[in-house]
Design brief:
about 130 residues; mainly alpha; elongated
Length: about 130
């Protein structure tokens, strides 16, 4: 990560990309364990951490834009949790719904692609400024 305040937006996008990548791995693991008796689906918590950090700045909207320079990206450490660990609708104790996992995976992939596009755009802007 870049330690300059000018790179705050890049740092936040980088943290979001890391979280989305990790979420892809977790969702793929859930899908791989769809038939494992007793397996409980896992997920990652990141969006709420980002929302709280943006609110800590005193902003009332949760829009991620270049104005997030004061967000402390070190506070955006996502964590994995077991979802509904005590609940299951299946007799074998597994609570993975393959349709939900695949939809979440597709949605997360779109989010990851958007984050990477945002990073690429930001670096293109920086490159344009430096080349003038």
């Amino acid at each position: 990560m870049f330690e300059s305040g000018a790179f705050g937006y890049v740092n936040v996008l980088s943290s979001a990309a890391d979280a989305a990548w990790t979420r892809n791995e977790i969702l793929n693991n859930n899908i791989a364990n769809v038939d494992t008796p007793g397996y409980k689906r896992q997920d990652i918590r990141f969006e709420s951490l980002l929302r709280n950090e943006i609110a800590r700045q005193g902003r009332t909207d949760s829009t991620l834009d270049q104005k997030v320079n004061n967000v402390d990206y070190r506070r955006l450490t996502p964590y994995v949790y077991t979802d509904n660990s005590g609940l299951s609708t299946r007799l074998d104790g597994n609570n993975v719904d393959i349709d939900i996992e695949e939809a979440e995976l597709a949605s997360n992939q779109l989010m990851y692609d958007g984050i990477i596009e945002g990073l690429n755009s930001e670096f293109s802007r920086m490159k344009a400024v430096l080349s003038k």
